[in-house]
Please model this.
Amino acid sequence: MAKLITLRDVYKIYGEGLESEVRALDGVSLDIERGEFVAVVGQSGSGKSTMMNVLGCLDIPTRGEYLLDGTDVQELTDKELSLIRNKQIGFIFQQYNLIQSLTVLENVELPLIYQGINADDRYDMAMEALERVGLAGRVKHRPTEMSGGQQQRVAIARAIATKPPIIMADEPTGALDSRTGQEVLKFLQQLNREGSTVILITHDNGIAATARRIVRLQDGKIVEDREQEVDWL
Amino acid sequence: MNLQQAVKMAWKSIWGKKGRSALTILGIFIGIAAVMTIVSVMEGMKLKTMEQFEAMGSNRITVSIYSWMYDEDGNDISKDYFPNLYDYCNGLKEYVLGVTPTGWCNATVSYGTKSTANMQYQWDEMGNITGDVPPSLYYGSDQYAACNNLTIVKGRDLAPLDIEKYNQVCVMGAQAAKTFFGSADPVGKELMVNGNKFLVAGVYASRLKDESADQSRLDNFIVFPYTARRILGGEKPTEFLVKARSSEAMTEAISRLSGFLKGLVDQNTGGYNVYSESQWQEQSNEYLTMIGLVLGGIAAISLAVGGIGIMNIMLVTVTERTREIGIRRAIGAQRSSIVAQFLIEAAMLCGIGGIIGILFGTAGSVILSNLLMQMTIFPPVKVTVGAFALSVALGIIFGSYPAVKASKLQPVEALRAE
Model:
């Protein structure tokens, strides 16, 4: 069986050929198997956000090959990429990225709406996800009426509502205090134990310690890729 | 994403920004209301002129003969051509039903205390006339009735002898009879016309069926033998009406009349024209259509301005919601879903504007038709449906650029927006 994710010599270059050329990803190769928990660690400007955008099919590499579940992402149309983001990947962002004009429930239902799931099933799936993050009692609230930790839990519910095989978390604890941050990380570990492949992007080595595998980026290159003892929370 | 969801989302967004939405809608609703009002009032005017032409009958030919012969003192010494025309037309009975001058006179008519000199009238708030309207005073031949689709209900019509003998008689239209005599029988009564006694010989039936203000105007007249001009004064007749038997006969009558007049009228001191009245009708329709186009064009400009307003506000909305678009794209919205979302929002804004515009346009055409024509015109169904379709179409047309722009945003860049 093919690896879940394979990067072969991937470059992401901004302003290529110019003097101001930036190599956000500079020949990266990486394999990720199903069920792994990988932390991509690096300083600001190391290219880890670009890595996440490429892995998350939000951005297309300048050069190189990205096989997702054996499919060459570069060959896909915008519509097919949208479908992959919708069904295969659940995103968790540092700034939660909830839509402020929608209620908690509507936010969680949104990816299911784009899947075309009917109203009843959608409600059930969204409520199931919200129960998992312990927010089933606050579904009619707006995101602005909630604390940062709660908002991030809504975002997690949205990410897992479609039961995607891959969870991508970009600095998910960045805007949270350490205790709520710990809860989020614990939740990611739990998702991983249940079979999800989790990719965690962070600049913080302490947070990276919750992952089985660490991939360290520096100036767009992988400088370290090792397995470690996990800090189970 | 299904339509119901999209509509719900669009409604949320419109409702979330009430003030801005209301202002945007304003532009569309003014335009739609203007278009509705103009179109339905113009339709009403066309209908009304058609009705009038129909009431007077079809197959009418207008003949005008003019000359500029004056003596040394400046008096008009041109010939009265009517006797020639009358004789000629009576020899053309195969094609012609009747011929009459269409002149009118300006005299004071009175009976007892009723006098055209002191008649007063006004319109009430429903647009109906109250009070007495002075009748029009026409000169006619004994064939006036045949030419104008009139029939006698009481007494007798004008006779050739009345013309010949300068008899002081007249025939009244239904409304004029009502004005002077109420429900009493006018036949045999004498009207005072500029101090001269004129016997009422007969009364014509009213030509329009419904009791509208127009009926009173169309049937509010008194016809005198045109030879009464000798007593009552007025211009020498230069306009004549010839009624043909049928539309086929009309073509023949027009060509024969033209030939006859060519021989009769001295082209050095005058001239003549022969028109079919359907030409007038067509022309008046053309004028109305043209006025309608000009006014409609102005309304269309206001609609276009409203549409640009929609485009502008949708562009602002797209910019404001760049991050939201990024989020939606990240969690799997396809470009088509984003396009649909903003298109539906624009179409809904315009649709709401359209509905309000239709309400105001209906009110506008009712009010305006009452003011201008003393009748109530509701916009035809096709105009109402058309106005709604137009407003939605405006939303789609002017919303498409912002919607496509929104869908072209790169997810990564959109997510970075603040």
Observations:
- The radius of gyration of chain B is 32 Å.
- Chain B has a mean pLDDT of 86.
